[in-house]
Amino acid sequence: MIALHHVQVACPAGGEDVVRRFYGDGLGLTEVEKPEALRGRGGVWFRSYDDHGAVAAELHVGVEDPFVPARKAHPAFLVHDVGAAAYRLRSAGFEVDERERETFEGYLRFHAADPHGNRVEVLQAR
To answer: Following DSSP, what letter does each residue of the chain receive, concatenated?
Structure first.
């Protein structure tokens, strides 16, 4: 068996606060404290939980220097309501690209770039 523990994207040094707005306020992920041994590296970690309280997804945003955004490789988050997720991101001031909304069979989706230019996909099963 293989299970996915987390996905990591990068941000530049000092970029954590705006990342909190995107992934926390915009997508609704919950910030979690990094282990003590890793805190000095900077960055921020997020989790989402299923309806039973179990961890459903984990995202680590690490500081990278020099920083280069991931414009092709990306995390894809499965949500219950893709429209609500798009609304929250737009309300937080982020752009949402819905041009490929119905191009992935069985899903509705959109793409966005986090504040540092990393590609993010958000999907809802039909």
So the answer is: ------EEEEE-TT-HHHHIIIIIIIT-PEEEPPPGGGGGG--EEEEEE-TTS-EEEEEEEEE-SS----SSS--EEE-S-HHHHHHHHHHTT--EE-TTTT-STTEEEEEEE-TTS-EEEEEEE-
